[in-house]
Design brief:
The chain has about 160 residues and is of the alpha/beta class. It has one domain: Maf protein (Alpha-Beta Complex), CATH 3.90.950. It is about 45% helix and about 20% strand. It has a five-stranded mixed β-sheet, sandwiched between helices. Strand 1, helix 2 and strand 2 form a beta-alpha-beta unit. Helix 1 runs parallel beside helix 6. The protein is globular, with a radius of gyration of 15 Å.
């Protein structure tokens, strides 16, 4: 299934509606999506009421320096892991006034995949102020754009489910 801009826009509006209903504010930490979640969210008029901003931490050094991801976690699990995604989300939460943070790290391709972490593997995390952290690993098919679009959609759907 191809994810299109209209679907992403619809999901972003739903995220905003859900966050506004509970007085929530979102922060993002993105790696393989390179700020696409933030772009989609800020395309919604009035998003400054419920989206504080995001971190684009493509390099491991940025994950460590900007979000506080532990070097040992990166060494033991690799950047594309639920453990790193969780630390990214917690780092975005700790470094913002948000009530909820999401993070994405994955292998969008076309290269960079391994047998253990193939192209299309994406790890996502959501962290709420107060301690709740959820993580998941998805495997998406398609080219680089399709994988990234599916990751953005999955991240937004996760927010909607959590905030319900």
């Amino acid at each position: 299934m191809q994810i299109n801009d209209v679907e992403l826009e619809t999901l972003a509006k739903q995220v905003g509606e859900h966050l506004q209903a509970v007085g929530g504010v979102l922060a993002t930490a993105e790696s393989c999506t390179g700020g696409w979640v933030g772009e989609v969210l800020t395309s919604v008029p009035g998003s400054s009421q419920w989206y504080v901003g995001g971190f684009i931490t493509y390099a491991n050094a940025a994950k460590q320096g900007w979000l506080g991801v532990n070097a040992d976690t990166l060494i033991r699990h690799g950047a594309v892991s639920e453990a790193v995604a969780a630390e990214m989300a917690l780092g975005a939460l700790a470094r913002s006034d948000a009530t909820l943070a999401l993070s994405i790290s994955g292998v969008a391709g076309p290269g960079g995949g391994t047998e253990a972490k193939p192209v299309g593997m994406v790890c996502l995390a959501w962290a709420e102020r107060g301690g709740m952290v959820l993580t998941t690993t998805c495997r998406f098919d398609g080219d680089r754009r399709a994988i990234r679009a599916r990751a953005v959609a999955a991240a937004l759907r996760g927010v909607i489910e959590i905030v319900r």
